Amino acid sequence: MKKFIFVDEPALGLDTKDNPSGLLNYHQTLDFCSSLYTDKEGALNGFIKNIVIDKSLNLNDLIEDTDKANADFVSPLFYNHMANDWSDIIKTIDIPSLVFSGKKSFFNWKLVKKVSEELQNSEFELFENVGHMLFFEEADHFNKSVTEFIEK
Description:
It contains 8 helices and 3 strands; from the N terminus they run βαααααβαβαα. The protein is mainly alpha-helical. The longest helix is centred in the first third of the chain and has 13 residues, at 26-38.
């Protein structure tokens, strides 16, 4: 791997006193993971609809594709994503990295920026008017930034 791109991800996703991520605490994370087994479609649809800032966007394709995910894969993935603190690993990444965040994300963008600061060789780009789904809501801007980064 020659380059790495982070899209709106803090080192630790859980919302704690010491890590005000803005999303779910530990018990809420467990509840959401359980709901992926009992009502995957409802849980994912609600999650997607709540994290998209521009409510006028057509989400049908995004939701349809997301619904194809296997709960036995998605639930543990979400749990690991939220509950593991990747700070020690992030500090070891020495390849050029691009870190994105949306200022209106449910994740505290300052924690995402901290990831950029902990990487040895990184750039940070903040999207002002969108949140976690910045790659969907501002696809042209996102794709242009990724292309320019890869082509450097």
